[in-house]
Each structure stands twice: as structure tokens, then as C-alpha cells.
Amino acid sequence: MSTIRVRFEPAGFEVDARPGEAIMDITDFNPGAEVPYSCRAATCGTCRVEVLEGRAALSVADSYEREVLEMFGDTPDRVRLCCQARLVDGNVERVTLKVCED
Ligand code: FES
User: Fold this and answer.
1) Could you list the residue range(s) of the whole structural domain that residue 75 is in?
2) Cα dihedral angle (45, 73, 100, 94), rounded to 10 degrees?
3) Which of 47, 62, 86, 99 has most ligand 1 atoms within 8 Å of its beta carbon, as the pocket-test mutant?
4) pTM, 2 dp
5) What's 55's domain CATH number?
């Protein structure tokens, strides 16, 4: 199984991960990623990140995640919730996620 390099902005933190891993688990193990969480259950939108690179390596957003993104005027092709997204084998070597500021 391939390795995916996941970069978090604005922290500039990078870590190697594998398809199947949840982004929330990756950031819990790597506080240097500096992704903020609150509800951890697709309710608050605190963990929103802009997908700058590697969208194909992220799991498809379910209806709960889509609903939260909609509340912020976002769509899953541009923004994801770190408490919901998981890495998948999308034939992508790099993913870059940027914490939303608002
Ligand atoms: S932490 Fe609340 S939506 Fe992700």
C-alpha cells in the first residue's frame, strides 16, 4: 500500500500516512499539525480545512459533513472536516490541507 505525504498549513507540518487512516487520528498523534477540534463529530465546523492538493486521496464526504460545510458556504470539493475525512488510495502522493481561519 502506498504512502501519502500529508502537509498541514499554516503550521508547515508534514507526515507520512497510509490509505485508511483518519485525518483526526493523524493530527491527534501529531499535534504539530495544529488542527483545532471541538465537537469531533461533524457538528461545529471548527476543524474545517481547505484542500490545496490531493483531493482524490480523501474519502467522500457523507451527508453530515456536507451539511456542516454548507453552513459555512463551503463545498467538499474545496473544504473538508478533519474530524470526518479519511485517507483513501486515490493514486495521489501528496495531500495539503490548510486550516480555515474563520
Ligand atoms: S470538530 Fe466539530 S466539525 Fe469537526
Assistant:
1) 4-99
2) 100
3) 47
4) 0.96
5) 3.10.20.30
